[in-house]
């Protein structure tokens, strides 16, 4: 499962504390045991085969059962303080239920959650401010951490014709540095479409309100588009946007409590897809 998430034998080995050769040997033995290839390998890529995809789901279920059994036996009195950094929009849309479930199962654990822009979170993480951090990243980026979420990024407006006939696209964005802001501007520049910043907000709710008021167009993950707003990504005059991806990074020397929370986040988000 870790190889599928990191898309690399080397990165999987680093995360699991094993050498690349050990990881490769384990996969070879698995493939010999089932008589089928699990991964398709090229010099530049590594991906699951169709048989590997079918095997991945049951493997995750077995790991969840294992983690649940161990938690019931050994973790009822787990305690400690865990500092988590997370982008504000992801925290608003996806994380409350995940953290609530962990807090209910481990009432003695103190969670400290901080919301900020991804680049700020990364800077503070590397300065030692967080035990765990969830950050936005480009799907093609070979960066640290393990992917826990991926979904399409779409153009969002008050109505379907919001961009029709406009010479300049008014953008509703978060302050710099912001991954979605950078992505939106780069996409418009790539097709030579003129744009201007019409509204800047530090919160997801603020951006949604500005778009609702007709002050501009924004880029959001599809799941964060409220029912009263509209995706206009099908508009032929709007450029395509890459998928958005969230990665979880653990600090070195992580406590058992923090590592348990990291496992819980990975499993809970996978279950919610």
Overall description:
- It is a single chain.
- The chain has a 5-stranded mixed β-sheet with strand order 4-3-5-12-6, sandwiched between helices.
- Helix content is 43%, strand content 23%.
- The chain folds into 3 domains: 1-74, Orthogonal Bundle (Arc Repressor Mutant, subunit A), CATH 1.10.10; 79-137 and 250-273, 3-Layer(aba) Sandwich (D-Maltodextrin-Binding Protein, domain 2); 153-242, Periplasmic binding protein-like II (D-Maltodextrin-Binding Protein, domain 2), CATH 3.40.190.10.
- The longest helix is centred in the first third of the chain and has 25 residues, at 50-74.
- The mean pLDDT is 85.
- Helix 2 (9-16) crosses helix 3 (20-34) and helix 6 (95-105) packs across helix 10.
- It is globular.
- Helix 8 (179-190) links the parallel strand 8 (168-173) and strand 9.
- It is an alpha/beta fold and 273 residues long.
- It has 10 helices and 12 strands.
In terms of DSSP E residues, the strand content is 15-25%
CATH architectural designation of the largest domain: 3-Layer(aba) Sandwich
Mean pLDDT: 85
**Proportion in helices:** 40-55%
Task: List its salient traits.
globular; 5-stranded mixed sheet; single chain; 3-stranded antiparallel sheet; 273 residues; 23% strand; Arc Repressor Mutant, subunit A; alpha/beta; D-Maltodextrin-Binding Protein, domain 2; 43% helix; 3 domains
Give a quick rundown of the structure.
The protein has about 270 residues and is of the alpha/beta class. The chain has helices spanning about 1-5, 10-15, 20-35, 50-75, 90-95, 95-105, 120-125, 180-190, 205-210, 255-270, and strands spanning about 40, 45-50, 80-85, 110-115, 130-135, 145-150, 155, 170-175, 195-200, 220, 230, 245-250. Strand 8, helix 8 and strand 9 form a beta-alpha-beta unit.
């Amino acid at each position: 499962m870790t190889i599928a998430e990191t898309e690399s034998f080397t990165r999987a080995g680093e995360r699991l504390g094993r050498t690349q050769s050990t990881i490769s040997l384990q996969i070879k033995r698995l493939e010999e045991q089932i008589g089928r290839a699990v991964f398709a390998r090229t010099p530049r890529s590594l991906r699951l085969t169709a048989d590997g995809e079918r095997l991945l789901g049951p493997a995750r279920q077995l790991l969840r059962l294992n983690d649940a059994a161990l938690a019931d036996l050994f973790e009822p009195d787990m305690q400690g303080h865990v500092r988590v950094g997370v982008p504000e929009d992801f925290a608003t849309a996806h994380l409350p239920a995940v953290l609530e479930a962990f807090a209910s199962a481990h009432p003695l654990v103190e969670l400290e959650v901080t919301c900020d822009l991804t680049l700020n979170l990364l800077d503070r993480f590397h300065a030692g401010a967080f035990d765990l951090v969830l950050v936005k990243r480009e799907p093609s980026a070979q960066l640290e951490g393990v992917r826990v979420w991926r979904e399409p990024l779409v153009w969002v407006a008050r109505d379907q014709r919001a961009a029709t006939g406009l010479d300049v696209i008014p953008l509703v964005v978060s302050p710099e540095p912001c991954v979605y802001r950078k992505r939106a501007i780069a996409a418009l520049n790539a097709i030579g479409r003129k744009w201007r910043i019409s509204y800047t907000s530090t919160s997801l709710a603020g951006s949604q309100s500005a778009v609702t008021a007709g002050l501009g167009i924004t880029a959001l993950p599809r799941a964060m588009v409220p029912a009263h707003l509209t995706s206009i990504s099908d508009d032929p005059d709007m450029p395509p946007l890459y998928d958005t991806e969230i990665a979880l990074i653990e600090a070195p020397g992580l406590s058992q409590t923090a590592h348990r929370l990291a496992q819980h986040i990975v499993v809970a988000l996978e279950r919610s897809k």
